[in-house]
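Thread: quick sanity check before group meeting

JM: Hey all, I'm pulling together slides for Thursday and realized we never actually wrote out the predicted structure for the chain we discussed last week. Dropping the sequence here so it's in one place. If anyone has concerns about the input, flag it before I start.
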Amino acid sequence: MRIVYMLDFNEMVIFVKVVEAKNFTAAATLLGMPKSTVSRKISQLETRLGARLLQRTTRSVHPTELGALYYERCARLVAEAEEAELAISQCQELPRGLLRVTMPVDIGISIMPAIAGSFLEQYPEIQLEIDVSDRYVDLVGEGFDMAIRAGVLEDSTLVAHRLFTGRMLICGTPAYFEKQGVPRRPEELANHDCIVFASRRTRDTVKFKGPRGEVTVELKGRLTINNLNAIRGACLMGDSISMLPELHCQDLIAQGKLVSVLDEWQLREGGINAVYPSPRHLTPKVRALIAFLDKQFGNLPH
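JM (edit): ok, ran it. Output follows.
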């Protein structure tokens, strides 16, 4: 005899969120319910299906083989339901509520005054929480609505909206080049003490495109810094050269305090992106901030 039972859609939603958040605590925060409720619902689901869906460790959870199969099917259903709800709410809602955004320190310093002033004045029903940090943030796992990130995006599951594109420049002070000489080819950078930008995920390996094709050079030096504003300040001391986004050095070049070299060679473009987990996370408040940032970055020289 076949047993007919009512599907519990809430169990599916909770299961999907636990898999995506990779732990019960983060999922409970996203769902706005106690962790004990999340754990109980998952246990009920596994009991009803007669299968273990999650492999639990002390710090995270991962789907079993059956769990991965179940997640694939449920995620589509949950996404469709969320998009249906969102389509209705977006037609009715003004931008409001808590908006959690994370961004690197360099970008935060540049755009924070505009966000803290003009944006909040324009949208009085939005509460803004900004994490200014150079650490890598898991948007879904840590409950952020959006991130502002620079450079190449490594997570292909995220949706990126380009806010700004600018050149990268090799810069130094006039006094430095007078003393050490001006490099005429990318390979000559090996003879110069470069300030190296480094974070947990990047190193300064630079690809130049020029008359002789492509040349790849690794910038080397005795000073390594993971903050562009600090690199700019160190470069002004006159003992080294560095690679900087045009956005961070164009004012100093205009003032004659820095000089760019190898301008006939094309370096990689530096991009700044607004990033969010999926199209269904493009809520009115996220959409409003992206539109605001589009205007802010659009006023900058490209």
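AS: nice. The chain has ten helices and 13 strands. The chain has a mean pLDDT of 85.
JM: adding both to the slides.
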